[in-house]
Amino acid sequence: MPHQCTNCDRRFPDGSKEMLSGCPDCGGNKFQFAPATSEASDDASSGEATPATESKQPADATATADQDPASASATSGQAPDREWPETARRPAEKDGRLDGSFADESPAEAGTDAMADDFEWVNGEEDDAQATARSDVVSPDELPRTATDTEAVSSRTEGATTDASDGTRETDARDRPDDGRVVSEPETDQPSIDQLREELNQQFESIKIVNPGQYELNLMELYDREEHIVSLQEDGRYVINVPESWHDS
Amino acid sequence: MGLLKGLKDSISRATDRLFSDEEPKRIGIYGPPNAGKTTLANRIARDWTGDAVGTESHIPHETRRARRKENVEIERNGKTVTIDIVDTPGVTTKVDYEEFTDEMEKDDAVRRSREATEGVAEAMHWLREDVDGVIYVLDSAEDPITQVNTMLIGIIESRDLPVLIFANKIDLDDSSIKRIEDAFPQHQTVPLSAKEGDNMDEVYDNIAEYFG
Q: Is A38 domain-assigned?
């Protein structure tokens, strides 16, 4: 699941051909790469699909499911192959919300939307970290009051709202014991930079990272690629720009 | 040139373009690092628009993003040729931060190296997608027969793009125009010094002829 649309956050499994013609949902042609085993130290707010943000999703789901037993089985059972849910934010809506204004939306709706967005999987594939975290159910004692739980999901995921109780929500989200535990979990199986580099090299025949700051380039491969590499990072991530013509065809 | 004549010429040029279906041709300035591509781009842009394109430096890979100067109008023999100049990062098969560590801290050198690599990828992408002609700039004091030069000129030829080879830095003692002419006899080679402004008339004559 290393590819993610930078516009609507839709994720694509490694090797997916869907993204080759642009994002099927929003038409976006920029994707970022986050290896399934990449380190979890990145800031979750950057919007990149790091294991930290992924591993938080099951906790969120569990917490929300606990609040609403009727939806529990639906959340955990259908999440992997769910199509764009009715409640999920559409890409256009999301674009319109980049200014951080959510005043016209109730906290409960925002929480549901955010959760659904996080669980928008394409081909029913789920990586190991995700599966492990999903099966590791927190006990009800560890959960905060259900009334604030959904709000916490909302505030953590969306970052900024214009709701008057915004400050309270942020505090709730940070104080949740499961929240801190989950964030630090992926560090236990954090891959080495060498592994990430090897992974990148497998992805890119055109650029080889010999060492940090030392690259070998295959000019012919770079010329032959239709997509444009716009950003390359030492930790194995990259951003490509898919040509418009792919989307049109 | 009088004010009225200048105004008239300007209106005439605008009218010509208004009724012309052709967009300005995008001319990519390609070549290995430190061949003088940005110096040339700045020389052309300053001569015809008064503006510069980018920063020049003796440290390789100063240009790490392609930069475009649009609507550069070059007048030759009473005709006006309008082109967009694309100054590209130097193309190479290896980028090593240690090249820069004499000039800057390691962290900056590593970042410069990564950006330069992205720049090469971008330059190759532009070559595939976005240029109508190529000015290939070589340092005439260096051996022109390298893997990069051979491969890039081969790619340009495979695309049937019009190409001019500019033998730059003829002001240097080690400069050899013949070495470049012998290496790429199938193409027109134009000697110049972009830094000193030597032989720029011939440069503009050739640009107007090839890309006009």
A: no
Give the ipTM: 0.82
B79 contacts chain A (CB < 8 A): no
Q: In terms of domains, do A68 and A149 share one?
A: yes
pLDDT single digits (tens) B126-137: 898 889 999 999
Query: Do the Cβ atoms of B125 and A216 come within 8 Å?
Result: no
Q: What is the mean pLDDT of residues A1-27?
A: 80
Contact at CB, A213 and B120, closer than 8 angstroms: no
Counting the structural domains of chain A, the total is 2
Residues of B in contact with A215 (CB under 8 A): 94-96, 113-114, 117
Residues A92 and A114 in one domain: yes
Q: Which long-range contacts (CB under 8 A, 24 or more apart) does A183-189 make?
A: A183/A40, A183/A44, A183/A52, A183/A55, A183/A56, A184/A40, A185/A40, A185/A55, A185/A133, A186/A39, A186/A40, A186/A50, A186/A51, A186/A52, A186/A55, A186/A129, A187/A39, A187/A40, A187/A41, A189/A37, A189/A129
Of A189, A209, A225, which closes a domain? A189
Per the structure, the complete domain to which residue A154 belongs is given by 46-189
Q: Which of these ranges, A26-35, B68-77, B107-116, B153-162, has the smallest mean pLDDT? A: A26-35
Cβ contact, residue pair A215, B95, below 8 Å: yes
Residues A137, A172, single domain; the answer is yes
Tally A–B CB contacts below 8 A: 76
Tell me: do A185 and A198 sit in the same domain: no
Question: In chain A, which residues have their Cβ closer than 8 Å to the Cβ of B127?
Answer: 223
* Assigned CATH class of B27-211: alpha beta
Q: Are A144 and A228 contained in the same domain?
A: no
